[in-house]
């Protein structure tokens, strides 16, 4: 079958070539030879090639170099100077010094040398001057005479052993006593009246080391202070002036 078809095709080609050889090559001047019109083919649109649009390059953009990335800074927190850590080191075998024991105030006991400070006026002490009892400012910088006038020796009460009497340290034999309700420094005369006037019974409403002084023969009267003078006035343990028992200066 294939062979027959090929022979037929060759025969047709030969006939066609014979006919073309018989056709004149140049048409005559008067002849009107029309050539078949060429078939109109639809216009072929050129395939659109996608192009990527780039932004216009300006001189400023072209000349600008890329900015370097900002450096990464790690903030370091500094410790304030006030927060410095102090490490205490203990030396092996070292013994810390002991604090000296607090010296208790002297008690109003027989034989003790004391000073009496007015609690309401720190620094002011009981003293004698011109043989009168009074309260003056007496301190370590005061004269030797003033400091001696403010030093008393505690004696057992002349009229009552449960009370006390105050003998001047710089005038032995003279005691504080009241006369006409005024405190004086008088020499002991051995009389019962003198012994009663020179005897005072201490009471401690303010605790240890603080006393009020009640008269032995006038139980409703206490040693008081008025305009620096020592007197014997009516009072109570809660209203009478308080005296702190101090070491002598």
From TrEMBL:
The keyword RNA-binding does not apply. Residues 1-21 form the signal peptide. InterPro entries: AbfB_ABD, AbfB_ABD_sf. Transmembrane segments: none annotated. SUPFAM superfamilies: AbfB domain (SSF110221). Residues 49-82, 228-249 are annotated as: Disordered. One of its GO terms (biological process) is L-arabinose metabolic process. Residues 122-236 form the Alpha-L-arabinofuranosidase B arabinose-binding domain. Residues 49-66 have a biased composition (Low complexity). Coiled coil: none annotated. Keywords: Signal. The keyword Signal applies. GO terms for molecular function: alpha-L-arabinofuranosidase activity. Gene3D superfamilies: 2.80.10.50. Pfam families: AbfB. This is Alpha-L-arabinofuranosidase B arabinose-binding domain-containing protein. It comes from Actinoplanes nipponensis.
């Amino acid at each position: 079958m294939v062979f027959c078809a090929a022979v037929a095709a060759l025969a047709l080609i030969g006939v066609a070539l014979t006919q073309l050889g018989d056709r004149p090559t140049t048409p005559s001047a008067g002849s009107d030879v029309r050539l078949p019109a060429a078939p109109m083919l639809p216009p072929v649109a050129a395939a659109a090639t996608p192009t990527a649009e780039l932004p216009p390059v300006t001189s400023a953009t072209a000349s600008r170099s890329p900015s370097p990335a900002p450096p990464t800074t790690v903030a370091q927190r500094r410790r304030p100077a006030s927060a410095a850590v102090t490490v205490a080191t203990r030396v092996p075998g070292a013994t810390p010094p002991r604090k000296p024991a607090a010296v208790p105030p002297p008690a109003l006991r027989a034989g003790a040398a004391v000073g009496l400070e007015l609690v309401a006026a720190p620094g002011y002490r009981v003293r004698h001057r011109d043989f009168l009892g009074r309260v003056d400012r007496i301190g370590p910088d005061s004269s030797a005479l003033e400091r001696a006038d403010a030093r008393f020796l505690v004696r057992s009460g002349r009229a009552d052993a449960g009370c006390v009497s105050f003998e001047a340290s710089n005038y032995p034999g003279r005691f504080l006593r009241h006369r006409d309700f005024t405190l004086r420094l008088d020499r002991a005369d051995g009389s019962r009246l003198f012994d009663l006037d020179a005897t005072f019974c201490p009471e401690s409403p303010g605790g240890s080391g603080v006393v009020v002084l009640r008269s032995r023969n006038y139980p409703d009267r206490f040693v008081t202070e008025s305009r620096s003078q020592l007197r014997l006035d009516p009072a109570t343990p809660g209203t009478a002036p308080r005296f702190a028992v101090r070491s002598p200066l």
